[in-house]
Design brief:
With 156 residues, the protein is mainly α. It is 46% helix and 4% strand. It has a three-stranded antiparallel sheet with strand order 2-1-3, with helices on one face. The longest helix has 18 residues, at 98-115. The relative contact order is 0.11. The model has no long low-confidence stretch (mean pLDDT 85).
């Protein structure tokens, strides 16, 4: 392990096993070069991560199951949309028709509005109806950026 990797691991929430008392510590009282020169153990267990909130590496232990249970075809479409593609590009990339893309969006919106009614607005003022689809898509994609667990394979 290099000095940079050791420092990065500790800064991101990894703990160093103290050779003195066998406990995991997050602050070191010696220069990292000294620690690196001898055998050492650095990391994090699930148990320690659960009591140490706010560390980046601890977030790897937090499991949130997908709420919506998107099908694989829906996940592919959503991933393409998150990559900035429009419906025409998605159809070309996924090698499906534009009508299949639109049908998949309807299926996604139906599931999301059923399971989380407040996430996607159902009623939009008359003068904004042409913007409704864009707003739905933007709100859903913003939600998915904050909840990537939704794009994990779901157990059906």
């Amino acid at each position: 392990m290099s000095l940079e990797k050791l420092e990065g691991t500790i800064r991101s929430g990894g703990l160093l096993l103290s050779p003195v008392n066998g406990r995991s510590v997050d602050s070191v009282d010696r220069p990292l070069q000294e620690i690196l020169a001898e055998p050492h153990l650095v990391g994090l267990t699930r148990e320690l991560a659960m009591v140490r909130f706010g560390t980046w590496i601890g977030s790897l232990f937090v499991y949130r199951p997908p709420h919506f249970g998107f099908r694989p075809s829906e996940q592919r479409l959503l991933l393409a949309a998150l990559g900035g593609r429009n419906d025409e590009d998605i159809a070309e990339t996924l090698e499906i028709s534009l009508s299949a893309v639109k049908k998949t969006w309807r299926s996604i919106y139906d599931r999301v509005s059923t399971l989380s009614p407040g996430l996607i607005p159902d009623k939009v003022p008359e003068e904004l109806t042409s913007e409704r689809g864009k707003e739905k898509k933007q709100r859903l994609l913003a939600y998915l950026r904050e909840h990537p667990e939704e794009l994990r394979p779901a157990s059906l």
